[in-house]
């Protein structure tokens, strides 16, 4: 390429983009110019999803935490998932600020943002595995469910899942944690680089193995569920055991929807890691796949609202401020014992 062509290319680039930090000149990153209407629409959509994600998951957290009738093994897992989704909604605020392609909050905040995003994604996958195990035992071994799946064991598993995610991602991002921003090529960039070995380990341990476990367990659950459904047709509708089976099947179907939606939203993110020898993840360049992860966190509470009557009742109490009453007859609100179904 000749000097004239290089100069022409530079002029065209400067006309279509501008510096993130004009006072830094060549040290600053370039950001592409966007139409004003497109930028406004982008900010509005992301802001609405962020607010909805935080608000809806906060309703789930308050509902399960406040009402003792909702303190079941399954709901504790939903609570852990809601906490993850709640933090995803908060992290979207950073993504919104980075929507124009420039990072203005410094290398340390960038690293914290990316680090938390990795931990939350990993812990969400772990929670999905626990949900699959919970439904597997409930459907395939219902007589021993109450002895195998206890509140204490579920709490321990949730804590271990979060601790494992934090420890594993600390190792996974060790190079980035030593020196924040060491892989940035210019000021205004926010990226983390994972080498081949760490990227492969992350792909296997936080995606391939957990997803395989989830799929296998739920295939088994639905096979048993079909046989239960056929068996129930030959029995009386008023039998208690039949009602219990129907309740478990309904819970399995609802959580199955949650798992399927999760897989559809999370798979594109991990497919990106299969590209290239070194995995380069940039918020700006991976906007679509990261947006899918964010969208999943907003969809989960909507699924609960659609399938779970207890969630709709508790939301009504929270929104109407009846939750603030010192003594409230919760038996009238949640009359059934198996309110997690």
UniProtKB/TrEMBL annotation:
- What keyword terms does UniProt attach to this protein? Cell membrane, G-protein coupled receptor, Membrane, Receptor, Transducer, Transmembrane, Transmembrane helix
The UniProt entry, under SMART domains, shows:
7TM_GPCR_Srsx
Annotated GO CC locations: plasma membrane
**Subcellular localization(s) per the UniProt record:** Cell membrane
The G-protein coupled receptors family 1 profile domain is annotated at 56-304
Looking up Gene3D superfamilies in the UniProt record yields:
Rhodopsin 7-helix transmembrane proteins (1.20.1070.10)
Q: Could you list the residue ranges forming a coiled coil in this record?
A: none
Name assigned to this protein: G-protein coupled receptors family 1 profile domain-containing protein
Q: Which family does it belong to?
A: Belongs to the G-protein coupled receptor 1 family.
Q: How does it sit in the membrane?
A: Multi-pass membrane protein
Q: Which Pfam families match?
A: 7tm_1 (PF00001)
């Amino acid at each position: 390429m000749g000097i004239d062509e290089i100069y022409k290319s530079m002029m065209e680039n400067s006309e279509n983009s501008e510096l993130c930090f004009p006072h830094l000149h060549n040290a600053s990153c370039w950001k592409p110019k966007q139409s004003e209407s497109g930028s406004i629409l982008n900010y509005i959509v992301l802001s609405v999803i962020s607010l909805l994600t935080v608000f809806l998951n906060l309703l789930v957290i308050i509902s399960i935490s406040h009402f003792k009738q909702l303190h079941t093994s399954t709901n504790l897992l939903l609570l852990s998932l809601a906490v993850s989704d709640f933090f995803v909604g908060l992290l979207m605020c950073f993504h919104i600020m980075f929507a124009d392609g420039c990072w203005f909050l410094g290398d340390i905040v960038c690293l914290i943002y990316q680090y938390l995003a990795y931990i939350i994604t990993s812990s969400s996958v772990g929670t999905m595995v626990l949900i699959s195990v919970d439904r597997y035992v409930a459907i395939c071994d219902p007589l021993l469910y109450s002895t195998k799946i206890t509140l204490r064991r579920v709490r321990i598993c949730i804590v271990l899942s979060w601790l494992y995610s934090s420890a594993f991602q600390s190792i996974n991002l060790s190079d980035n944690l030593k020196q924040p921003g060491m892989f940035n090529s210019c000021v205004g960039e926010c990226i983390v680089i994972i080498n081949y070995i760490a990227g492969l380990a992350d792909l296997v341990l936080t995606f391939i193995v957990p997803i395989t476990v989830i799929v296998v367990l739920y295939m088994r659950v639905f096979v048993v569920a079909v046989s239960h459904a056929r068996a129930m047709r030959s029995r009386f509708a008023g039998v208690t055991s039949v009602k219990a089976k129907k309740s478990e099947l309904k819970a399995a179907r609802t959580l199955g929807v949650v798992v399927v939606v999760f897989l559809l939203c999370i798979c594109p993110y991990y497919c990106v890691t299969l590209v290239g020898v070194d995995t380069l993840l940039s918020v700006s360049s991976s906007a679509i796949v990261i947006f899918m992860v964010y969208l999943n966190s907003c969809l989960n509470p909507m699924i609960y609202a659609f399938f779970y009557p207890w969630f709709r009742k508790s939301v009504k109490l929270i929104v109407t401020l009846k939750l603030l009453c010192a003594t409230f007859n919760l038996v009238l609100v949640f009359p059934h014992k198996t309110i997690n179904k």
